[in-house]
Design a protein that fits this description.
Elements: H1 16-51, E1 55-60, E2 65-68, H2 70-76, H3 88-91, H4 95-106, E3 110-117, E4 124-133, E5 145-152, H5 154-190, H6 196-228, E6 236-239, H7 240-257, E7 261-267, E8 275-278, H8 280-296, E9 303-311, E10 314-321, H9 328-331, H10 343-348, H11 355-365, E11 369-375, E12 379-387
Helix pairs in contact: 5-6, 6-11, 7-8, 8-11
Bound molecules: adenosine-5'-diphosphate.
Adenosine-5'-diphosphate binds at residues 289, 293-294, 297, 321, 323-324, 326, 334, 339-342, 346, 351-357, 380.
Length: 397
């Protein structure tokens, strides 16, 4: 702004009217240009505010809402049509947010706080950063209004919690076998007179825990690989019958010991091979985990059946056992990391609690899915649905 006051205008004596007219025209043109510029700036600002994923709400010194961008309307649940011009305590349905704005206008220049908003679909966590607006250079004067910037951190907080849970679980799972191994070894060291058969029992226990520790570390590495970079999978056409036979060969000894029959059934009516576009090693691991679990939960004399068939562009692999089954309330949770229906039983047989989580990640990394159906006492069926290899398993439709 010009602070020196209006400058005197010197006009020539002759043609005085023409000169005034020219001057007025020039000033009018300059003013029009300024108005156009201001309008453009206003529109640019509006576009930026509309495009922000953060919510922005501005109130004047009386607490009247003078601006709310679409993100703020969504995050704070404002009524887009009526919030402008309303008092914030009427427009913003969260008194805690309004009290924060009031506090900031009264005192501190800026405050950031986390608010938990209850919603029918689940609580949301919002970070609200409020800053008062004061005249330039007048930090202590009365606030002209305030601006609140709102960010949704629900997903971030959920991930942080799940990371903490994961580390807590991993530490616990690793500690248990390490403590057991240490205990066995210390007992043997402390008792040089120990009977050979007792020592053998302690050593066998230590070996079993070491094997479980090894499986746990291997599973954790697989999980980290799948979660870290699913794109690192090396996709190529893989023939599923061959992979199933390899898995059967790997578990044959275990199945024979438990007297469980392994069967493979292929439902193909066009003679074509069943091929998926997959990372062969990852597929073998996923199918291996399902078959391994099926055997572990089977009774002697029962059978584990692997069925393969096409469904449109997908190939389905179902692993069915006639074993203990899974209670209805646990069905949704069995794919969670470290979830077990019977934790003690799982640990006793060397289970890591991560096997099905790996299966789920393998399925998802291939653009597929895994589901489970089960009847307690009668058995379970886990079904992997994977995209067929283009042009080979492209469907029988
Ligand atoms: P674990 O190492 O304990 O087998 P998983 O992630 O492979 O871990 O499986 C999670 C839990 O799901 C198991 O502890 C078990 O309670 C249940 N489960 C998995 N497969 C079966 C099955 N075929 N029959 C019954 N329960 C199963």
């Amino acid at each position: 702004m010009d602070t020196d006051g209006p400058r005197p205008i010197r006009l020539p004596l002759l043609g005085r009217n023409a000169a005034v007219e020219r001057l007025v025209r020039e000033r009018t043109w300059m003013l029009e240009q300024r108005v156009v510029e201001l309008e453009r700036e206003r529109q640019d600002l509006g576009r930026i505010l509309r495009g922000l994923s953060e919510g922005v709400v501005a109130v004047d010194r009386a607490g009247i809402v003078v601006h709310a961008n679409p993100a703020a309307i969504g995050l704070l649940g404002l009524d887009g049509a009526s919030c402008l011009g309303s008092h914030m305590f009427v427009a913003i349905p969260h008194p805690a947010a309004c009290e924060l704005i009031e506090d900031v206008m009264r005192g501190e220049g800026r405050v950031t706080r986390e608010l938990v908003i209850e919603r029918p679909e689940g609580d949301s966590v919002l970070v609200v950063a409020v800053r008062s607006l004061r005249k330039a250079g007048r930090d202590d004067g009365e606030a002209e209004g305030a601006i609140a910037v709102v960010r949704d951190v629900t997903e971030l907080r959920r991930l942080e919690r799940s990371r903490q849970d994961f580390f807590g679980n991993v530490s616990h799972e690793l500690k248990t076998p390490v403590t057991a191994i240490r205990g066995s070894i210390e007992t043997i060291i402390d008792d040089p007179e120990m009977l050979p058969e007792v020592r053998a029992r302690f050593l066998d226990g230590a070996r079993r825990h070491a094997v479980r520790l090894g499986s746990l570390v291997t599973d954790l590495i697989s999980l980290a690989r799948l979660e870290g970079d699913p794109g690192a999978l090396q996709l190529a056409p893989v023939e599923v019958e061959g992979v199933t036979c390899e898995v059967f060969a790997e578990v044959a000894e275990d199945a024979a010991r438990r007297e469980v029959r392994l069967e493979l059934e292929m439902r193909v009516d066009d003679g074509r091979e069943l091929v998926v576009e997959a990372d062969e090693e990852a597929l073998r691991q996923a199918l291996g985990n399902l078959v391994h679990n099926a055997i572990a939960h089977s009774d002697p004399g029962s059978r584990v059946l692997v069925e393969l068939w096409r469904d449109g562009a997908f190939l389905l692999i179902a692993v069915t056992d006639e074993g203990t089954g899974i209670p209805a309330e646990a069905l949704e949770r069995v794919f969670e990391r470290f979830y077990r229906v019977d934790a003690a039983r799982s640990r006793a047989r060397g289970g890591t609690g991560i096997g099905l989580s790996i299966v789920k990640h393998v399925a998802q990394a291939h653009g597929g899915s895994v589901t489970v159906a089960s009847t307690p006492g009668a058995g379970s069926t886990f079904t992997l649905r994977l995209p067929g290899s283009a042009g080979v398993a492209g469907g029988n439709s």
